[in-house]
Each structure stands twice: as C-alpha cells, then as structure tokens.
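This part of the workshop introduces the protein records we will be handling. To make this concrete, we reproduce a full record directly below.
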Amino acid sequence: MSDQPYGVLDGAMPPQTNPHLFGHDEAEAFLARFYRSGRSHHAILIEGPEGIGKATLAFRFANHVLSHPDPEQAPEQISDPDPEASVSRQIASGASHNLLHLTRPVDEKTGRAKTAITVDEVRRAGHFFAQTSGTGNWRIVIIDPADDLNRNAANAILKILEEPPKRSLFLVLSHAPGKLLPTIRSRCLPLKLSPLGDHDLAAALSALGQPLDDGRNAENVLAMANGSVAQALKLLNYGGTEIITAFDELMASSGPTARKAMHRLADVLSGKDNDVIFGFFLDYLGDRLIERAKAAAVAGDLAAADRASRLSSEISDRISVSQAYNLDRKQTIISLLEDVAR
C-alpha cells in the first residue's frame, strides 16, 4: 500500500512541495517578468498535456508572488522555493490563508476522488475571498485542473472571473483547454507549456529518484511517455509498459487466442486498486484510435477513419455511463476492446 498523499502517483512529489521544475524556463521567466511589470493579468490559463509540470509551475509562481507581494520589488527570476521559509511551509502543508487549491474532492463514502470539481468546491473560493487578509497580501486560487469543473462549477468560477476581487490571482490549469467554456478562456491570459524533451524528462525522473538506465527500457519509456513525467511514472511503477505490450499482442491475434488475451487484459484493468493504470490505458487507447483515424484518412479510407474517430470520442462517455450506473467495469472494457478489434 502506497503512503503517498491521495492522488499523487507512486514516485512523484506533490506539486506544492516539489522544489524542482524542468523544461519550462521560458514560461517561468515570462511569469516573473509579467508579475514584476505590475500589469499581471488576474487569471492565467496554464495549458498543456497532463503530467508535464503545470501544477508545479503554478505553485512555484504562487510562492514567488506571496513571498514578494510588491511586484516592483520582486526578483527578475523565480527561484526554487526555500523549504524553511514560512510561505513555503504554509503552502506545502496546505495551511496558507492566501492560497486555495481547488481540485476534485474525495468522496468520504468511497475514499475515491469524485468525478468532477463541484459547485460546492467553488463556493470555497467565495468564502476564501470574503475573509480579510491580515497581511494585505495577494489571494491566489489554483484550479487543478479546470477540465474537471462540472457545468455549475464552471459557471460559478466564471462569475468570479468576471468581477475579480482586488489583488486576486487565478491560476487555471488545463490539459484540454478546448473543452473549457469559451467565456472562461476569454478571461484568462493563455500560457502554453510543451511536453518535456527527452533530456528534461530524464532529469525530472532522476530528481524524483527514478533514474532511467541507458538501455532499451529507457528508450521505450522516453518514447511512450510523450514528454510527460506522469506517463513515465505509470510506465515504470504501474505496469504501463506491460499493459501496452499486452494490448499490442491482443491486436495482433485472432479467434480464441484473442478472446483469452482480451479477458486477461480486462481482468488486470478492472482490478479494485487499478484506477491509475485503467486511466492510463484509456488515454493510450484514445491516442491509438486517433492515430488509426489519421492513417485511415491518409490512405483514403474515410469510413474507417470515421469509425476510429467516433470510437475515440465515445470512450470517456461510455466510461462515465458505466460509472454512473455502476456497471461491471470488466464488461465495459471487453466491449471497448471488441469494438477496437473490429
């Protein structure tokens, strides 16, 4: 059983305590300059694929702002947080009165994260801003990620963004900004982060005590992680590499052999404590279907391209329906795999 905080991958560090950031020097320098200019926007949309450092950057910038509340006196660069400083300790422990981290809450009955950031969570932001800051410092809200806001929560956030309190700053994280309300995007300054290059990804893993060797395994992990530390950790610590191998072998087989392989894979993915690898597989499956759709379109097989594209977009909906009605996960996975195989 992992002793990691809830929602933090084995081998990872919570972003509020992570002292290092790799591969985003330009974005960090931009934030430092923008803040120091005194003309910083009240909401910044930090966008990019999951697991590349968006939350770590957000907490580093929040630490920088709260440590230097006067923009004109702020340093020209954002430094690694000082773990002994009171601001850093408060942020790391979640005890800062000037920083609110909005993310999916944990359901007390199931012990798992809820499927969305609810309007009740957003109401915490209203209470947060209603409190008087004893220091007169900035008030910062990190929405992590905004993709998880349900409709009511998104509308509630929008109302605050439309009339932001004085000395307030919203750091809005998104893996897929195209899915956000256009009105939310229009009220944010976009800051796009790119996936990490191989050197930065390897350095980030090494800093987490997960150094890659120089062999074939390192090449495979770097190739399959797509510049994401989170994906790399799922490959290394959650059996992601084995899952991909099993799927590829399944797709290459047929008849009774394929059926047995399908059930074996579904058994693993539907395990009680396998939520992380299940989500990893769904992401991988979606990417494979998109690749298949593109290849079919290039080959002129528009019908096949349409089928693959539709199935890719249906995956999350089918999983949501399965969860909402408490359907058997294994059977849902088998149904997906059968459709992909066809």
